[in-house]
Amino acid sequence: QVQFMESGGGLVQPGDSLTLSCVVSGTIFSSSAMAWYRQVPGEQRESVAQISSAGTKSYATSVEGRFTISRDDAQNTVYLQMNDLKPEDTGTYYCTDGGPYWGQGTQVIVSS
Question: Using CA of residue 13, residue 63, residue 67, residue 72, what is the dihedral sign?
């Protein structure tokens, strides 16, 4: 079973930066496309950023230019660098390989 361990969230002010990490186990990570999702209570999870096994990246319009997804296949880890954070970035962030399993997520709160 694939397992995801997200970390790096916290309470920050608008304009601050955070880097989220997700360590993945139980799968051939280097062959897996990975993605970060965000969920706000009462709403569905939404895709924030994706990275293919070859390193091709794509982003939601709302985070384009502010967030950067990256991966370290040697460490089985995917990252999400978040700059110029806004209150609307608040939510619980999850990483996924597109399969049925999810981790616990890491909470990000952007508030002044």
Answer: positive
Can you say how many angstroms the Cα of residue 21 is from the centroid of all Cα atoms in its chain? 7
- Tokens for 108, please give them: 């990000």
Beta strands in the chain (DSSP E): 3-7, 10-12, 18-25, 34-39, 46-51, 57-59, 67-72, 77-82, 91-96, 106-110
Tens-level pLDDT at each residue, the chain (112 residues): 899 999 999 999 999 999 999 999 988 898 999 999 999 989 999 999 999 999 999 999 999 999 999 999 999 999 999 999 999 999 999 999 999 999 999 999 999 9
Q: Are strands 10-12 and 3-7 parallel, antiparallel or unpaired?
A: unpaired
Structure tokens at 12: 């920050």
Question: Measured between alpha carbons, how far is 98 from 5 in angstroms, rounded to an integer?
Answer: 15
Q: 63: exposed, middle or buried (C-beta count within 10 Å: 0-12, 13-18, 19+)? A: buried
Q: In whole angstroms, how large is the CA radius of gyration of the chain?
A: 13
